Predict the 3D structure of the following.
Amino acid sequence: GAGVSQSPRYKVAKRGQDVALRCDPISGHVSLFWYQQALGQGPEFLTYFQNEAQLDKSGLPSDRFFAERPEGSVSTLKIQRTQQEDSAVYLCASSATGWSFGYTFGSGTRLTVV
Amino acid sequence: AQRVTQPEKLLSVFKGAPVELKCNYSYSGSPELFWYVQYSRQRLQLLLRHISRESIKGFTADLNKGETSFHLKKPFAQEEDSAMYYCASRTDKLIFGTGTRLQVFP
């Protein structure tokens, strides 16, 4: 596609509910990144894929967070047993090569846990 | 560890005034530095990269290794420059500052 697509745009979850956030990167982009942006903060790195391999997951805040990219294209970020502190905008970005160029960001998914 | 500091949460200027958005990074090596911009209701987008030494929309940024700074400057601000600006540093991953909101008044 023409850009990075994320769905849903908005998600309201009850505390304790599981959620799945989808990212469709630019076709052919090898690298995919997830960021979490809390209100009033800059984006915080969560995890990075190169093709289907998850090369860095050091930013995932807890084991309730899980990301996958099984076929090296679409990625899903799953949050289990959501907590209020998980409320944030989740951004996905893709890049044509590993670390060497600027990233193209999606519009994000705004998650609100009530 | 990498860290990017943007000391100002908000910068307000009048149209035509010079603008400088401050950014300092903490890393002893040679990271790549970037400025990203997010206009209202739009997605985050790359503004400029230090290695390109480019001027985009009248903005420039000079890497000062001695002061570990990468301040963003524009000599004459325009109303359409109003946005959130994020400085970012990359070694093994892209790390963002907390952002500065630029408001340009008519």
Q: What stands out?
A: The CA atoms of residues 33 and 50 of chain B lie 6 Å apart.
